[in-house]
Design brief:
The chain is mainly α. Strands 1-3 form a two-stranded antiparallel ribbon. A two-stranded antiparallel ribbon has the order 2-8. The protein is globular, with a radius of gyration of 22 Å.
């Protein structure tokens, strides 16, 4: 691709500009003095770290509207799944998630790695400053706890994308742990097990420190518990998953949305009854056609590219229940006769989970943890622990709040299905497009079946469109969980400047 050639030509210059990925400056040149001199200074420092989740930060001397932590996080996660279909070829590196044609030089992974470690470095700066304070008050401890949460969250997302699942090889290479601003630039990748141990330790410490509420757009004790629930689920530790899921569920701060309120949850995320933690975007941060999370998966004809759609695979999974309110977020583009339109032989079903805030087609405050996930985490852990009835009860609780009161399992497994099959199907539908599907499949050592028409097909040419009826004729569309292409290469910026960092195969 043309863009890949340009990257390779410019690479020596880019590496010279970037230097070691450890050498990232804290936001606004944070110092111990500016952080601890006043409550406002501390609050601004912590809020600056949150901003890095949504800002378009200068990278290699330029600001690219496509470079934003959350945009890359959702694309790198979901575009590799069977929930979203690619509608055309593109030079945007998001295409590599569909095709699995990854490269150490692709811009989206390089930026995600860079900005993740910038967040980590920023919160490390705050942690080191605040921990020197004698007898910190509750507000200061809250800020400190939020920093531990952000460090855990950042390391967790890195290890999910750049290392094989814990359940496959906990002793395998993970990512580089950065827990101090004084860490040596040259540092080896920690094992996956060690990375998870650090994530758990940071989340637990954050939970112990946070005893105030600053709103759903900031971390809280419950957000740290939710992260622990998810991390333990990914490790396959059922008892701990259930324990932390229960802590969130029983906290009394959140309630499940209903069939009536669920359709507006994501457009009103900050005040949503299920929202545990989200990233708040304002009207001035509406990136419209360029750079928003919604831009590639939704269009109203004026804003948004709308080039990727809800897949036939997901729609087939949901087809038995048109009354399911979760169809609200799958929006067909129809002509005046009610016929669903196509692009390159692919039915156009836009995705609107990241649209609708303030009436804008490209604005939302993405939810990163919500109550439904806690019930489904508990259900999955219960299924694996042999507690079938408990698992089905949690699934039914979700379904009864999605318009499916007449389609409950009532403690009865369908013929030929396991409790885990039922839970994973419900997770797929409930959490679709929220960054879960790829990890749900592979950490459970299941294959990803993408035998449907789309531009994820290897070696595709425009002239191949007539083969849409037989996508199974293409090799590699059923991706096995041990395929090394399910994760991304460590960005070349890191491996070229940190010689102790080994590359993924």
């Amino acid at each position: 691709m043309k863009s890949a050639i340009i990257i390779l030509i410019l690479l020596p210059l880019l590496l010279w500009q970037t230097g070691c990925m450890k050498d990232v400056n804290p936001t606004d040149a944070l110092t111990t003095e500016t952080i601890t001199s006043s409550p406002e200074g501390l609050r601004n420092a912590v809020n600056g770290a949150y901003s890095l989740l949504k800002d378009h930060v200068t990278f290699n001397g330029t600001t690219d509207d496509n470079n934003m932590y959350l945009r890359q996080y959702f694309q790198l996660s979901d575009f590799a799944s069977d929930d979203i279909v690619c509608g055309q070829t593109t030079e945007d590196p998001l295409f590599y998630s569909f095709s699995l044609g990854h490269s150490p030089t692709q811009t989206n992974t390089r930026y995600f790695w860079y900005i993740s470690y910038k967040i980590i470095n920023d919160v490390n700066t705050v942690i080191e400053a605040v921990e020197k304070v004698t007898n910190p008050d509750a507000a200061t401890q809250q800020m400190l706890g939020e920093c531990y949460f952000l460090r855990a969250f950042s390391h967790f997302n890195l290890v999910k994308l750049f290392a094989m699942p814990y359940t496959q090889n906990p002793a395998g290479p993970g990512i580089i742990l950065r827990t101090s601003t004084g860490d040596a630039p040259q540092k080896e990748r920690a094992t996956v097990s060690d990375v998870y141990a650090q994530i758990v330790a940071d989340a637990e410490k954050g939970a112990a420190l946070m005893n105030q509420q600053r709103g759903a757009q900031y971390a809280s004790q419950e957000a740290a518990w939710a992260l622990l629930s998810r991390a333990y689920l990914y490790e396959g530790k059922n008892d701990s998953t259930i324990y932390y899921s229960n802590k969130v569920i029983n906290a009394g701060r959140f309630t499940l949305t209903t069939a009536a309120t669920y359709p507006t949850l994501f457009a009103n995320a900050i005040n949503g009854s299920e929202t545990i933690f989200c990233v708040a975007f304002t009207e001035v941060e509406d990136y419209h056609k360029f750079g928003s999370i919604a831009s590639m998966i939704f269009s109203d004809g004026n804003s948004g590219w709308g080039e990727e759609y809800a897949s036939a695979s997901l729609r087939d999974t949901m087809a038995a229940h048109p009354e399911d309110v979760r169809w609200k977020y799958i929006v067909p583009l129809k002509d005046d006769n009610g016929i669903v339109q196509q692009k390159n032989g692919i039915d156009i079903y836009y995705i609107s989970k990241f649209s609708g805030q303030g009436g804008s087609p490209t604005l939302s405050s993405p939810i990163l943890f919500r109550l439904s996930e806690m019930y489904l985490n508990r259900a999955e852990a219960s299924a694996k622990a042999g507690q079938t009835n408990a698992a089905l009860d949690d699934v039914d609780l979700i379904r009864s709040n999605r318009g499916l009161e007449n389609a409950l399992y009532n403690k009865q497994l369908p013929s030929g299905k396991t409790a885990l099959d039922i839970v994973l199907k419900e997770r797929r539908i409930e959490l679709a497009f929220e960054g879960h599907r790829t990890f749900d499949v592979y950490r459970n050592k299941r294959p990803m079946n993408r035998t449907y028409w789309g531009y994820h097909l290897p070696g595709l040419k425009q002239s191949d469109i007539n083969l849409a009826v037989n996508p199974a004729g293409y090799a590699g569309m059923i991706i096995q969980p041990d395929n090394t292409k399910i994760i991304y290469y460590i960005p070349i910026d890191e491996t070229e400047t940190n010689k102790l960092c080994v590359q993924n195969p």
